Structures are given as structure tokens and as C-alpha cells.
């Protein structure tokens, strides 16, 4: 089983922070066990420098809370083998919700982001917050029952939405493709089903967390770019997810493309990247060329069939994305850029267009070790990140101490 840690602005949880920098508490000791590696009391004493009696007391507290569990016995050179303890990801569960422009993916996970039950469903974000969130609540209750869990078992709920979010309140802020959602109290509405903490973030921020935790936990500087109905990015810099002053960091889709395109955008401006290189934009360009592509799903089918005009159009869209990303590369100097979203499934032609523009427009020093790759977590990036968002908060030192106390 893969064990994950979270990075965010409030909590940079890690499996092994400097022992002498941690308070003498059960929550602090728990951080040393979150990587899933079984450890003995002696191991923990050596790692922390705390008295053995203190370690024993804290271990008992964590065992009573079920956050850790016995992991067997180590071999011994004589006498009784020492007992080992490890993180118990089954102690609680997490409800993870990934809302896109036209779909929702909802999952129940354990505390290590392992999916226990999951459902994907078409769900148009333009139906408004009440209709969409009521549908989410109904699906989530079914999934909890399927997983053998209850709302009371939840450590919390994580939600990703396709627009800017005021992270402190969980309210969308002027989201371009979410009519009726501006300043809506998402946590307050969901609390009628789920009593615990409810955390809301931009969907691409959640995807960045999910991809980082599962695929690139050792990478300190990376971007996750989602290209679907809209275009956005999640930025991890120096090991932290960046929200910006008002939660608008990473809104890649509303940067103007360098070629001066004047296509109108949903945000009210023209020539935005989203207006020329998103899934609907590519489909519209193919319709103008005489193809019967009513939506971007039909566009993807055309691309996969090997149609030359469709491949050319998709590659050019990749170049448009890359031309905007080139400025991000010069500014942020990431070592990995992960491309996700439904348009990324168009295949290598789209990625090739992105790479072509980035490598030709960015400084050589910034691209010397840069990797531009397709997502490995694929459609699950959002729910994995939403789960990680919750555990990063709920399993922090302070909140573990609160759970135990």
C-alpha cells in the first residue's frame, strides 16, 4: 500500500521532521509513523530523544485512538522480540469530491488515500450549487454505505471545484464557468450530511496535491496543468501548494496567448488560453473546418481515429498551452510539469505541442532538467488530492492531539 503525505500552506506534514523540533505530544509522535514504516518504542526513543516512559505513554494514546496499530514483532538477538507499531489508515475515512465542468467523481478513501468506493457521474456545474451539491450528498451517502462507513467515521470532506476559491472559507470567488456559485457556502450546505471538517479548494490545486503525493512526493517544485472544459494549474513551490493572496494562483486559462488571438472568453476578455486551447475550443475549431464534433468527447474520438486535421489542430492547441507555460517555467522554474484533464488523453500530439513551445521559448537553464509528462493518477488525481487535503489538515500535530484529547 502506498502511504502519502500532504503539502499545503497551513501544514507541511512530513514523515520525519527534525525530532527536537517537535513538541512532546502524541500528535508529534504520530507524524513519525505516518510513512507506514513499522517502528519499535526504542526506534521512536532514538528518533526523538524523549524518555522511554514518555514514548510508551504516547504510543498507548495512539493505540487507543486506533491511529496506529501493532505491526508484529522484530527479530531479537535474545529475550522477547520488541513489538512494532505503524500507521493505521483504516482508523477513519475521507470523503473526496472532484467537481469538473461537466462531471463529478466522488470517492470514499482511507487515511492513506486508498480508494474504498468510487463513482463518476455526468453532472453539469452550471446547474447551480444546490442541485449539484445535493446530488453529491446523495451519491456520497450511497458510497459510504458501500464502503461500510458512516458520516461519523469521516475525518473530513475534501472538495475540488473548477474555479477560484477563498481557501479560508471554502467559498468560490467569481468563478467564470460556475454561474450561481459566487460566494456560495459549500461547507455550510454539505454539513447537513457530514458533521466534520469540510475543506474546499480549486480542483487543479487538489489534482496537484494528489499527483504530488502519489507520484512525485520527493519533488519540491512542480506544476499540474488541467486541460478540459477549462484550463488551470496547481503550483507547488518549495514543497508548498501556492494559493496566492485571494486563492487565484495558477489561473493559467485566463492568461492571454502571445499570438494576439481575439477569440472571446467566458471571463469577458479575449484571446485567453482557455478560449483557444480548451476542449470546447478545439472542438469549435474543428467544426469551423467542417467536422461534426458537437463536443470535445467527439473531438477526442476524431483524434484517436488518426484524422490528420484533428491531429494538427490538437498539436497547435498544445503549442498554445506551451507558449503560456513557457513564461511560467521562466518565472517558477519547476522540475516537473504534469499535464492532466480530458484533453491530455488526446495523446502524444498534444504533449508534443506543449514541449515544442516550452523548450523553444524558455531559458535553457530553466528547462535543463525539466520533465513535461502526462498524469499518472489520471482521472483520480482530483479525488486523491481532495483526500490528501483533508488528511494534511486532520492529521496535523494539533488535530491529532485534539482527536486523542
TrEMBL record:
Keywords assigned by UniProt, alphabetized: Kinase, Transferase
Domain of life (superkingdom): Bacteria
UniProt xrefs under InterPro entries: ATPase_NBD, ROK, ROK_cs, WH-like_DNA-bd_sf, WH_DNA-bd_sf
Any one GO molecular function term: kinase activity
One Pfam family this sequence matches: ROK
Protein family per UniProt: Belongs to the ROK (NagC/XylR) family.
Protein name: Putative NBD/HSP70 family sugar kinase
Naturally occurring in which organism (per UniProt): Nesterenkonia sandarakina
Lineage: Bacteria, Bacillati, Actinomycetota, Actinomycetes, Micrococcales
Amino acid at each position: 500500500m502506498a502511504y502519502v503525505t500532504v503539502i499545503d500552506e497551513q501544514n507541511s506534514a512530513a514523515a520525519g521532521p527534525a525530532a527536537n523540533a517537535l513538541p512532546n505530544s502524541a500528535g508529534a509522535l504520530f507524524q513519525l509513523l505516518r510513512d507506514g514504516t513499522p517502528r519499535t518504542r526504542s526506534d521512536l526513543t532514538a528518533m526523538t530523544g524523549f524518555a522511554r516512559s514518555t514514548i510508551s505513554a504516547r504510543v498507548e494514546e495512539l493505540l487507543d485512538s486506533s491511529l496506529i496499530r501493532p505491526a508484529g514483532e522484530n527479530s531479537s538477538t535474545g529475550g522477547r522480540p520488541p513489538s512494532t507499531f505503524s500507521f493505521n489508515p483504516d482508523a477513519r475515512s475521507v470523503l473526496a469530491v472532484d467537481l469538473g465542468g461537466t462531471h463529478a467523481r466522488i470517492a470514499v478513501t482511507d487515511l492513506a488515500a486508498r480508494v474504498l468506493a468510487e463513482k463518476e457521474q455526468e453532472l453539469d456545474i452550471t446547474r447551480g450549487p444546490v442541485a449539484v451539491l445535493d446530488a453529491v450528498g446523495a451519491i456520497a451517502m450511497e458510497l459510504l454505505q458501500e464502503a461500510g462507513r458512516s458520516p461519523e467515521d469521516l475525518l473530513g470532506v475534501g472538495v475540488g471545484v473548477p474555479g477560484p476559491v477563498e481557501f479560508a472559507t471554502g467559498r468560490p470567488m467569481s468563478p467564470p464557468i460556475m454561474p450561481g456559485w459566487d460566494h456560495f457556502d459549500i461547507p455550510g450546505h454539505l454539513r447537513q450530511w457530514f458533521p466534520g471538517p469540510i475543506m474546499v479548494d480549486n480542483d487543479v490545486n487538489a489534482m496537484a496535491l494528489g499527483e504530488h503525493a502519489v507520484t512525485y512526493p520527493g519533488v519540491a517544485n512542480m506544476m499540474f496543468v488541467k486541460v478540459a472544459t477549462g484550463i488551470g494549474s496547481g503550483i507547488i513551490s518549495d514543497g508548498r501548494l501556492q494559493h496566492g493572496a485571494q486563492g487565484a494562483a495558477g489561473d493559467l486559462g485566463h492568461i492571454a496567448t502571445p499570438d494576439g488571438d481575439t477569440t472571446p472568453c467566458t471571463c469577458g476578455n479575449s484571446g485567453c488560453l482557455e478560449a483557444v486551447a480548451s476542449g470546447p475550443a478545439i472542438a469549435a475549431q474543428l467544426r469551423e473546418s467542417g467536422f461534426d464534433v458537437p463536443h470535445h468527447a467527439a473531438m477526442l474520438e476524431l483524434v484517436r481515429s488518426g484524422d490528420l486535421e484533428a491531429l494538427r489542430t490538437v498539436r497547435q492547441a498544445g503549442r498554445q498551452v506551451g507558449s503560456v507555460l513557457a513564461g511560467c517555467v521562466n518565472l517558477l522554474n519547476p522540475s516537473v510539469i504534469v499535464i492532466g484533464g480530458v484533453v491530455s488523453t488526446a495523446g502524444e500530439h498534444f504533449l508534443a505541442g506543449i514541449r515544442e513551445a516550452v523548450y523553444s521559448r524558455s531559458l535553457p537553464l530553466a528547462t535543463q532538467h525539466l520533465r513535461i509528462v502526462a498524469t499518472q493518477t489520471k482521472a483520480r488525481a482530483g479525488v486523491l488530492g481532495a483526500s490528501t487535503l483533508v488528511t494534511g489538515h486532520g492529521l496535523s500535530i494539533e488535530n491529532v492531539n485534539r482527536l486523542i484529547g
